[in-house]
Recover the amino acids of this structure.
């Protein structure tokens, strides 16, 4: 199944356009990171990162997301080599690990809020919940997207179509892990110190 | 049964109480009803839906952007008239024409409308109208996204105007600094209207930035390398880079402010550890690139106009490109100059002050290059050229006062005085407004097939120029005398003559705008006499090689380019008629209603956020997600025109 | 057969990148929870370097941002985005940290500070 020149050109444009969108997403996260960095000591008299964050928990979260990104890469490789079954397995694992990550994050948020450390308590907490929450929102959207992809695969199953759509998702998913590197380092690791 | 959750915090007390706002609240819906009645009477609903609302053709979208922008220009100038009439009578012993709360809404909406809906609107109009034609292609890279961007812009526009009818607008100035715009001091819906109209329009702008960047990178005609593109296209390219970098910062800042207001967070509140100064920092990190986003396409337009009307190739193409790129880079590292007085200290102020002064250099290079282009050219003083000459004088004055303001020590004296107001109007009116009006005059024949009346156009230019001088030169003096901005009354009687002259100036500008409205109406009436050929200005760039009005497919045969100003040289060498075998099948995107529906859903969702109707927020959000998924699953978004049909249409258009 | 081997090779590349990235995360964790002897600044520098290294590994091996494979515009726009991102982030932190308000001084201390600044003779 070869692609016509127009199809290739169109795919190229969509990939460039999506990549540029991700770069704008980078800038959005930059403003959230900058805000967090400025406000991280404004705890309104309450506890800061070192009291509230549990590094072990966050390390597990981090490794889960990293594994999810790795498995997503394997899925990308699989579909580029026409291995449909492997692709579905890896994509399923990506989604499962993503759900696990999100569950852990929501548990962390729930615990903090339950103890009275809400985003309304202080500027630090507002910034924390917004930065980490925005990342979580992107993860949630990614999970919805991946599920729609699996549904589309069984609905139409046209290889090059799914290939094109999936490679966009894969870039998105890897990008979210890149952002998480900095959340892990700047928010949690530097917050705990 | 408690129904309150159904309508959030809406209630009748939010209807306007002041005569002017009540007038607008009645006048606007009445106008809409009149338009609807006319459409029904002339049976044009189908036409409107098929040809305009569901279109994905960049030219049509551009015309819609331009129409909305011009209507909003009328409202923005009316706001200016209100402001200046108040200040003219606001001296000691004077009167209060409208209460201060209304006055604050007026200057806020004046700024918001002029920047976000007039300037950005006209800019996107010109991008859509000119860029695909200039690079020899049929449409932008993502036509559907283009339509979505327009309808998001439209949604923002409805929100700003809707606030007049129900709820009132923000009183926080066009940038909405907290803590004034926090819940504590602005509990009503006004600031929320402001936040969401900017947020929605801003997302539209961001998507357009991506769209046009990819278009210029990927849709250029074969043979058109970067250094063979028209300079206007270069200016658009550089502008889209700025848009992609800067607009997310606006999205972020507005989102944080809305979290403060909707969820009681503490980013910028004065309590709870918030830092309002962080907002000022972030919003200007967007705001400064924004003003360069507005002015750089105008620079590109001047390059095209000066070369065409001097019948001479642009002087220093390469240095013009380098200057554009330099201005782009520098516009990222100057934003702190908008808050020298906030207290960052001498080191920080010095750095940003020096960077600000450096930007004047590439800008000066451009001005000189335009003048050198004119030198020894055979100049035609058509109205676009008149607008350019008005720009050259006006913008230079404004630029010079900008360098003055770049010195922190001076800025400490005149920050937020009328001196500042005079400076930015100087550069925006001289640079942006004059440029966009010139561009409309220049490209109008290409879009509609007839000219705008020249005499009225020149009259408009002269009225604008004189009106500008009368409106804003007194403000420089007032600023130095200590008059701060956004005041509706003052106690120094020696200021009164200056304010009166300024008010007269606004009236003169108003006459200029009346000339323009008259020009449009008259030109439509006399369109047969004002008929335009495909190349009415003896132009240099590719868009003048297609018939006027431009056919919906732009080019029947995609041109091949081998140099800058390809069309000019083709004319010198003799334009070759196309062979029958040159015509190929054309694939074009189909019309779709999704752009309109997504835009209107964004409007409904924003309204729901403003009025705290939470169930509607959820429904709107889900609807948008579902529509996006449906669109991505749709495989049949294009249609083909066979080559024979293309040939037939082309021969007919050229006959 | 050749294709299958190439496939395995690429899978291994992903695996190596994954393990390296994971190791860096664990190292950052270890440093953060240890009863450390580092100052705040040197700790920040070390973990940011680890983050930058992980960024490089993920960008290169997961996002395929190496010079030969990806189209040029991807790497170029990525580099440019990082460049402006750092300007905005570092610039904002520089500006905000310098604000008088944040220096937390009393009015008398502020007077003293302003006087000492003016004596520097800028």
């Amino acid at each position: 199944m070869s692609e016509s020149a127009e199809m290739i050109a169109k795919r190229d444009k969509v990939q460039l356009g999506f990549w540029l969108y991700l770069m704008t997403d980078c800038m959005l996260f930059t403003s959230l990171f900058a805000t967090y960095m400025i406000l991280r000591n404004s705890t309104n008299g309450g506890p800061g990162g070192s009291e509230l964050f549990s590094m072990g928990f966050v390390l597990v979260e981090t490794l889960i997301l990293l594994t999810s990104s790795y498995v997503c890469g394997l899925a990308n490789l699989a579909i580029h080599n026409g291995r449909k079954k492997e692709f579905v397995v890896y994509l399923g694992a990506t989604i499962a690990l993503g759900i696990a990550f999100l569950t852990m994050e929501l548990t962390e948020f729930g615990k903090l809020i339950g103890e009275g450390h809400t985003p309304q308590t202080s500027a630090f907490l507002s910034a924390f919940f917004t930065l980490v929450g925005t990342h979580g929102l992107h993860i949630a959207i990614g999970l919805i997207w991946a599920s729609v992809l699996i549904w589309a695969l069984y609905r139409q199953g046209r290889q090059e179509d799914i290939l094109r759509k999936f490679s966009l998702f894969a870039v998105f998913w890897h990008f979210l892990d890149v952002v998480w590197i900095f959340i892990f380092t700047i928010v949690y690791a530097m917050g705990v110190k | 049964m408690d129904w309150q959750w159904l309508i959030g915090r809406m209630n009748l007390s939010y209807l306007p109480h002041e005569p002017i706002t009540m007038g607008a609240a009645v006048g606007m819906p009445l106008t809409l009803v009149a338009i609807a009645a006319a459409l029904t009477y002339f049976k044009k609903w189908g036409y409107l839906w098929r040809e305009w609302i569901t279109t994905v053709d960049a030219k049509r979208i551009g015309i819609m952007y331009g129409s909305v922008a011009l209507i909003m220009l009328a409202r923005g100038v009316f706001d200016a008239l209100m402001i200046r009439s108040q200040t003219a009578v606001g001296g000691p012993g004077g009167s209060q024409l409208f209460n201060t709360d209304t006055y604050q809404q007026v200057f806020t909406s004046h700024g918001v409308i002029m920047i976000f809906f007039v300037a950005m609107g006209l800019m996107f109009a010109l991008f859509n109208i000119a860029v695909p034609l200039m690079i020899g292609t049929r449409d932008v890279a993502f036509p559907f996204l283009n339509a979505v961007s327009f309808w998001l812009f439209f949604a923002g526009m409805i929100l700003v105007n809707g606030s007049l009818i129900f709820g009132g607008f923000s009183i926080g100035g066009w940038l909405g600094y907290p803590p004034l715009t926090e819940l504590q001091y602005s509990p009503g819906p006004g600031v929320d209207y402001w936040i969401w109209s900017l947020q929605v329009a801003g997302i539209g702008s961001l998507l357009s930035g991506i769209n046009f960047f990819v278009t210029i990178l990927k849709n250029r005609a074969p043979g058109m390398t970067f250094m063979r593109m028209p300079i206007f296209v270069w200016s658009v390219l550089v502008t889209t880079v700025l848009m992609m970098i800067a607009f997310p910062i606006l999205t972020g800042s507005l989102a944080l402010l809305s979290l403060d207001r909707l969820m009681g967070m503490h980013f910028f509140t004065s309590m709870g550890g918030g830092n309002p100064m962080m907002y000022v920092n972030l919003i200007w990190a967007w705001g400064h690139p924004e003003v360069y986003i507005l002015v750089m396409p105008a620079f590109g337009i001047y390059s095209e106009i000066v070369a065409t009307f001097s019948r001479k190739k642009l002087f220093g193409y390469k240095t013009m490109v380098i200057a554009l790129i330099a201005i782009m880079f520098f516009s990222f590292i100057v934003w702190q100059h908008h808050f020298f007085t906030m207290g960052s200290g001498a080191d920080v102020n010095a750095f940003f002050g020096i960077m600000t002064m450096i930007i004047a250099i590439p800008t000066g290079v451009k001005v000189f290059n335009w003048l050198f282009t004119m030198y020894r050219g055979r100049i035609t003083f058509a109205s676009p050229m008149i607008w350019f000459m008005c720009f050259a004088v006006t913008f230079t004055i404004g630029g010079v006062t900008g360098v003055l303001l770049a010195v922190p020590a001076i800025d400490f004296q005149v920050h937020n005085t009328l001196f500042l107001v005079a400076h930015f109007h100087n550069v925006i009116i001289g640079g942006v407004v004059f440029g966009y009006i010139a561009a409309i005059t220049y490209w109008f024949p290409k879009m509609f097939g007839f000219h705008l009346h020249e005499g009225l156009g020149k009259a408009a230019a002269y009225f604008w120029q004189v009106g500008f001088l009368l409106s804003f030169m007194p403000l420089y003096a007032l600023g130095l005398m200590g008059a701060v901005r956004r005041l509706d009354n003052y106690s120094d009687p020696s200021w009164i003559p200056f304010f009166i002259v300024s008010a007269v100036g606004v009236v003169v500008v108003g006459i200029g705008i009346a000339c323009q409205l008259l020009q449009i109406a008259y030109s439509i009436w006399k369109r047969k006499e004002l008929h335009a050929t495909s190349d009415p200005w003896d132009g240099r760039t590719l868009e003048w090689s297609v018939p006027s009005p431009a056919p919906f497919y732009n080019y029947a045969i995609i041109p091949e380019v081998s140099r800058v100003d390809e069309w000019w040289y083709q004319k010198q060498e003799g334009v070759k008629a196309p062979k029958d075998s040159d015509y190929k099948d054309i694939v074009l995107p189909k019309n779709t209603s999704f752009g309109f529906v997504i835009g209107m859903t964004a409007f409904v969702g924003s309204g729901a956020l403003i009025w705290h109707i939470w169930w509607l927020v959820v429904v709107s959000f889900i609807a948008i997600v579902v529509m996006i998924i449906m669109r991505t699953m749709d495989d049949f978004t294009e249609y083909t025109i066979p080559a024979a049909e293309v040939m037939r249409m082309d021969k007919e258009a050229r006959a | 057969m050749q294709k299958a081997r190439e496939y395995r090779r690429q899978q291994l590349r992903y695996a190596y990148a994954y393990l390296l990235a994971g190791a860096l995360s664990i190292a950052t964790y270890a440093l953060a929870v240890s009863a450390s002897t580092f100052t705040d600044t040197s700790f920040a520098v070390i973990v940011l370097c680890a983050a930058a290294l992980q960024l490089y590994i993920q960008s290169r091996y997961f996002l395929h941002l190496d010079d030969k494979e990806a189209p040029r515009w991807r790497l170029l726009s990525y580099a440019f985005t990082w460049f402006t991102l750092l300007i905005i982030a570092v610039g904002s932190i520089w500006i905000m940290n310098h604000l008088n308000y944040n220096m937390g001084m009393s009015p008398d201390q502020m007077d003293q500070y302003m006087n000492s600044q003016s004596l520097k003779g800028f």
User: Anything to note?
Assistant: The longest strand of chain B covers residues 586-589. Chain B is about 65% helix and 0% strand. The radius of gyration of chain B is 25 Å.
